[in-house]
Specification:
It is built from five helices and five strands; from the N terminus they run βαβαβαβαβα. The chain is an alpha/beta fold. The structure holds manganese (II) ion. Manganese (II) ion binds next to loops.
C-alpha cells in the first residue's frame, strides 16, 4: 500500500485515477486546487505524486519545480499526466523533475504499470551520486 497524492482539476480524471489506484491497494488523496498542493503534500507525505500539467493558478510544471525545491518532498517520485503534448513537452516536463510522463487519454495498463515502477524506485534515471545508496554518516 502506498500513499499517492493526485493533483488534478478534472473530476472525472480524479475518479478514474483514484478508482484505479484504490483497486491496486493504494491510498489516494486528491487536490483540485494546485495552490494548496504543496501544503497537502507536506501533510500527507505521499510515496508518489501524480500531477496534471494543465492546472489553473499553479501549473503542473511550476508545481513540480516547487516540489523539487522542497526539502521534505524533493525525493518523492512525480508522475506527470498531460493532455497537451507538443514537441519538446516531455523533455521540458522531465527537465523540471518529473520521473515519468503519461499522456491523456490514459492507457489504464500503462498508468498502473508506471505507478508501480515509480513506487519500486524505477524510472529515476536522473538520480545522481548519493541517491539510492545512503550517504554514510550524514
Ligand atoms: Mn487540467
Amino acid at each position: 500500500m502506498a500513499k499517492i497524492l493526485i493533483v488534478e482539476d478534472n473530476a472525472l480524471n480524479i475518479k478514474l485515477f483514484c478508482d484505479l489506484l484504490t483497486a491496486h491497494g493504494h491510498q489516494c488523496e486528491t487536490v483540485t486546487d494546485s495552490r494548496t498542493a504543496l501544503d497537502s503534500a507536506r501533510r500527507f507525505s505521499p510515496n508518489l505524486i501524480i500531477t496534471d500539467i494543465q492546472l489553473p493558478h499553479v501549473s503542473g510544471i511550476e508545481l513540480i519545480r516547487l516540489v523539487r525545491a522542497d526539502e521534505a518532498l524533493a525525493m518523492v517520485p512525480i508522475m506527470a499526466v498531460t493532455a497537451y503534448s507538443a514537441p519538446g513537452d516531455e523533455e521540458r516536463i522531465r527537465g523540471v523533475g518529473a520521473n515519468a510522463y503519461v499522456t491523456k487519454p490514459i492507457s489504464v495498463t500503462r498508468f498502473a504499470q508506471t505507478v508501480e515502477d515509480l513506487l519500486a524506485g524505477e524510472g529515476q534515471e536522473k538520480s545522481g551520486p548519493g541517491t539510492g545508496a545512503a550517504s554514510e554518516g550524514q
